[in-house]
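Input record (Table S2, row 255):
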Amino acid sequence: EEKVKRIDSATDKARAREKDSDRLKVEENVFDVPTLKILYTLSNKGIIKAMGGAISTGKEANVFYAEGDEKELAIKIYRMASSTFKAMDAYIMKDPRFTNIRNNRRDIIFAWTRKELQNLKRAKSAGVRVPEPIVAEKNVLIMEFMGEEKKPYPLLKNTPLEDDEAKLVYNKIVEYMHLLYKEANLVHADLSEYNILIDPADKTPVFIDMGQSVTLEHPNAREFLYRDVLNILRFFGRYGITDKPEELLSKIQAE
Ligand code: ADP
Ligand code: MN
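Output record (adenosine-5'-diphosphate complex):
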């Protein structure tokens, strides 16, 4: 009961904060009754101890800070009212792990959420630094919070780097792309400076946002990989990284 009240009041506060902004509608959309029920259940199980504030409002999902049993959590909630779910089709329908998903919004969003959890697990097992996935329940994904003092680590995009630091970050990203490809059998498929966080302590990258990541069997895997490669080279070009796309590709695909 107490926990439920805390979630309610955290939800109210989150809404109050957003009241006078354009985000109001989006925030209201995220906490529909079924989603609140999932959050209650997760709190009754002791997985969520207290809900915190909003970290991000994206095209399809909102991310919230929360306190877990021992660790801080990031809770990513895919909005059931999301209008862009159609874009999920191309990624999920041809993925051999998800061939029996019915073609409706609910099931696609739930499968997407499970897929993100599985992708994070595979990436982590392969040695890629990602948030530790904890649980996926319908449209709610719970994972380790990557940040400090309740603030997420900055995006690569917003991290000032010296040229020599940038070179190290680039090499680590290449290593992670290689591990993803060779060990996890995955292509991130939305890799860019917007989906890589930088741990300020040691400047190591953290890959996030793996809902759209596909296995190498996906018919568009090569095309997605090539796009990731171009994004990374475009970003690191400003730091004097001069690898050609084919060079980076062969590093990723090396034995
Ligand atoms: P979207 O699909 O909306 O882009 P992301 O997974 O990229 O969703 O998350 C959006 C933002 O939320 C990220 O840019 C990051 O700031 C924050 N975020 C996501 N996951 C975590 C996490 N595990 N720990 C801390 N912050 C996170
Ligand atoms: Mn993202």
